[in-house]
Amino acid sequence: MKKTKVAVIGFGYIGSVIGSVLADRGHEVIGIEKDSRIVRAINEGHSPFNEPGLEELIKRVKDAGSLKVTEDVSCATGCDVFIITVGTPLDENYGPDLSQISAAAQLIKPYVRDGSLVMLKSTVPPGTTFGIVRPILEETAKVCLAFCPERLAEGRAIQEFLNIPVVVGGIDEKSTETAAEFWRDSLGVEVITTGDAQSAEMVKLADNLWIDLNIALAGELAKLADKMNIDVLEVINAANSLPKGTHNVNILVPSVGVGGYCLTKDPWFVHSMGKRYGLDLKIPRASREVNDSMPDYSAYLIDSILCPHGEARSGKKIAVLGIAFKNNTGDCRFTPTKPVIEKLESLGYILKICDPWTTEHDARLVTNREVSRNIKETLEGADCAAFLAGHREFQELSITELAARLKPQALIFDGRMFFSKQKIREMREAGLRYKGVGR
Fold it and tell me: 318 and 263, same structural domain?
């Protein structure tokens, strides 16, 4: 592999994975990050994010001297490759806020030179690489500029980065091929090239719109299943056995809602693009509205069983298990558990919260309440155990343990655990009640 000096601009959740893996592959990586908390943690050999394998990887590359993270952009001097992974949040009109993209391009402009490879991995609307980043950088040098969508899932980001095909589209043919060669050489993965940067930019949005819409379909089916008193998972599992085209039908599963930095905003990016071209796209808005309704719906399910006739809720205790938006991660960005907690609090329930995966920093994104790591203590004497995440520590709980800790006839609310029929029978035999989303 050709070893080179790589600058990663934005060393957050995705940047830290990309930079650490590239450093482990022998590149000299300079991470440029404005958050001093992240800089300090990584330079001490720790991961600021609870991502499986990341802390060990960071420690290894720090010890090897192949990774440095700093707030000082001048350390990017002499870099051959620049990878931009800064945030692209929604603005107040549900359109893309590209200010961090422009700022990142301005930041590296003094350090690029003719032939430098610049790759944008932040999720952006089509046209951003060519229309915003290119004009800024071309004031300094003629660079190879490409877009490579980030397609990693929390909880298995390192594994996916090393295995999932990389999509590349450049502003010209040379940029596309230079970027493709870098990823083939660095990761040894399949590289899929598109005709231009704009097509590559659309790939991530298409992926996330499909996921969001598919989950919304599952959520609507779950609501209907609740009215009909049938098990939505049985319906989905059977429906997914039907071959269609080159694959089977693939309906995903319902839960308390959709969270994370990408799925909650990317459909709105597509909707905003439609308006720009005079199109009233129905699907992005529909998927967001359905998925945004699921936290309130989940709180309603809990409340309707604990207090079915409008009885007093004061004094009733709910053990909230899991606040991260994704199982076996501590990622709380835009987690749907936050509105569930807020709704239950507004109804007057007493909450005790547990999540063994979240850091103090992540937990504060959700609640100002104490977030415990002690599962058994959280369950003690509760009227309801609300499983809002399906962490492995929760999966290891036995029904006997649940029954011993909770009050008699306590409710097990299944927001993300997808308990088997056998487990549900065991709960009922142990004197517990069960309710899942669509089950």
Answer: yes
DSSP 195: S
Structure letter (DSSP) for residue 95: S
Quick one: pLDDT at residue 1?
61
**Strand pairing partners for 83?**
8, 119
What is d(CA 423, CA 397) in angstroms, rounded to the nearest whole number? Answer: 11
Give the separation between CA 96 and CA 390, rounded to whole angstroms.
31
Which domain covers residue 361, as residue numbers?
196-220+231-439
Residues 148, 201, single domain; the answer is no
Q: Which amino acid is at 434?
A: Y
- Kindly give the residue spans of alpha helices, DSSP state H, lying in 110-264: 128, 134-137, 157-161, 173-187, 197-228, 232-239
* Threshold 0.70, pTM exceeds: yes
Which pLDDT does position 92 carry in this prediction? 82
Angle at 340 between CA 342 and CA 408, to 5 degrees: 105
DSSP annotation of 407 reads: P
Active site includes 317? no
Query: Both tokens of residue 249?
Result: 């039908």
Same domain membership, residue 152 and residue 201 = no
Out of 68, 204, 317, 352, pick the active-site residue.
204
pLDDT-flagged residues of the chain (< 70) = 1
User: Has 262 been annotated as catalytic?
Assistant: yes
Residue 12 exposed, middle or buried by CB count within 10 Å (0-12, 13-18, 19+):
buried
Q: What percent of the residues of the chain are helix, what percent strand, and what percent coil, each to the nearest 5?
A: 45, 15, 40
Secondary structure (DSSP) of 375-407 = HHHHHTT-SEEEE-S--HHHHT--HHHHHHHSP
Write down the pLDDT at residue 272. Answer: 92
Residue 310: the pLDDT is 73
Q: Residues 79, 144, 262, 384: which is the catalytic one? A: 262
Q: In the block, which residue shows the tokens 């659309």?
A: 202
Q: What is the CA radius of gyration of the chain?
A: 23
